[in-house]
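call fold(seq) -> tokens
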Amino acid sequence: MNQVLSILNITISFGINKAVNNFSVELNQGDFLALLGANGSGKTTILRSIIGFIKPTGGRITLFGTPATTRTYKEMRKRIGYVPQTAHVDFRMPISVEEVVSIGRYGKLGMGKRLSPYDKDLIQKSMKDAGILHLSQRPIGHLSGGERQKVQIARALCQNPDLLLLDEPTANLDLGAQSELIDLLEKIYEHKRMSILIVMHDLQNLPRKCNRSIIISEGSKVFDGKLKDTFNIENLSYIYGPNTHLVLRSLSNSME
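ret:
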């Protein structure tokens, strides 16, 4: 099976503060991995190091079999779809959903390039896959939070990525929108079988299609295994602390 991502013993420090400590992981083609942990545990820092926004102070990252360096990241990013926790879009701008989604295609081609019929078809297909084709001409500022997040997912899909990275995609959404978004991600995974790495801290919204989970605590990996083995008091205590018993009871009820 082809290896998509390899992280070997990376350390990331900000000044004297060590945000990530000796972290390693491998992700193969078709894997769906959940990176779990409390707020501030280092999850997003790891994700941003994969995309090349943060440079590790130690260790090595390999993407698609090639060591990730300043020189190689430009081409590697074209194979990665990235959905940040906060969209880098000014929702006051008078631009349509389709125009925002097309940004993902320009990320693959380079700005200034003319879109081919294939590119335009892929933009339409990405909106359809994300369930927003009917919103294609709607101004981006006229969307709900859940619809905006689907736009960001469509933008990432428009790059036709081999690896999809999502940072807390359900954050700040109401319960209905959260459930709808997770269902969408599971359908995308079933249909495309791309490698997915999703950062989460709310386990009640964890996609059941995940075949593996990793728990991070204070920048270090404390659990790496199958999703079904995640839900015990010891593991959940790294995420929820003194509220672990309440969360475990709630999770048990929701999974019945």
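The helical segments are 43-51, 73-76, 97-109, 117-129, 145-157, 175-192, 233-240, 244-255.
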